[in-house]
Amino acid sequence: MVSAARFTGRVALITGGGSGIGRAVAVRLAAEGARVAVADIRYDTARETAEILEEAGAKALPLAADVSDEEAVRRMVAATVREFGRLDVLHNNAAALGREVYGRDLDLTHMDVEVWDRTLAVSLRGAMLGCKYAVPAMRDGGAIVNTSSVSGLLGDTDHAAYGSAKAALTSLTRYVATMYGARGVRCNAVAPGLVLTDVARAVMTPERLAEKAAERVLPHAAEPADVAALVAFLASDEARCITGQTIVIDGGTTTHRPEHAIRQASTRLSFQK
Ligand SMILES: NC(=O)c1ccc[n+]([C@@H]2O[C@H](COP(=O)([O-])OP(=O)(O)OC[C@H]3O[C@@H](n4cnc5c(N)ncnc54)[C@H](O)[C@@H]3O)[C@@H](O)[C@H]2O)c1
Known about the structure:
Layout: E1 11-15, H1 20-31, E2 35-40, H2 43-55, E3 60-64, H3 70-84, E4 89-92, H4 113-137, E5 142-147, H5 160-180, E6 185-192, H6 198-203, H7 206-215, H8 224-235, E7 246-249, H9 258-272
Helix pairs in contact: 1-2, 1-8, 3-4, 4-5, 7-9
The structure holds nicotinamide-adenine-dinucleotide.
The site of nicotinamide-adenine-dinucleotide has 29 residues, from helix 1 and helix 6.
């Protein structure tokens, strides 16, 4: 059962909160009592998320911020504290997933160095900057949750920049946890496999969805709300003894030997015959 009081009196700041997982986390934390600052490089989408929260009776603050920009991150944290008086939770969730960055993160031997730099600037430097300014603002301690990915745990034939940035987030998570644990600041990460956000649904072909299903142990793919439930748990006092961890949420995609996926795929093919 969800405790309605887990975030009463608390203030959360979510980056990349204008859509997908970030929006689901905003909705979840607000439903559990948090006042929520929703930051996104796209102010229109941050405002949309804030409106959803306010329509549900919560307090929300939409903010425009490019998390790769130090001054923008400093202002984002300052605006949150100015509006709500404190900061308890930071969710470093933004990533450059558009066609110009993630979409060009393909064969390493032909990769533009700008693709590499922008990927790391948003996912890794952005999270570092978030920690840099949020930790001093967490006067009563707090919780940071970074969004990593299973791409940071395993190799693949594309997205080396994205995977490397996400892998480095695991390390940043451990360092921040170690540096500020004594001040009551916890830092953890979530590492999702496929999450069926609106964007993911729009770009995944039926064939790709079937491939992803064959990789999993569980029949169902994660929805943004599933990741939000995990982020909320890690950000709450129920996780008060958990820090420095990267928790995988992937329906079992990374729990088994590759043979399992191959067998699953062939079983499905023989079903279809
Ligand atoms: N959807 C998945 O299958 C999946 C799987 C594993 C990990 N993730 C991770 O989850 C997080 C959220 O992704 P999502 O799937 O919800 O995608 P999404 O594209 O819906 O959300 C990403 C958000 O980040 C914002 N953003 C991009 N660059 C930014 C910047 N420089 N500063 C501030 N905001 C910026 C975008 O505008 C967008 O609102 C990302 O870190 C992504 O890597 C997603």
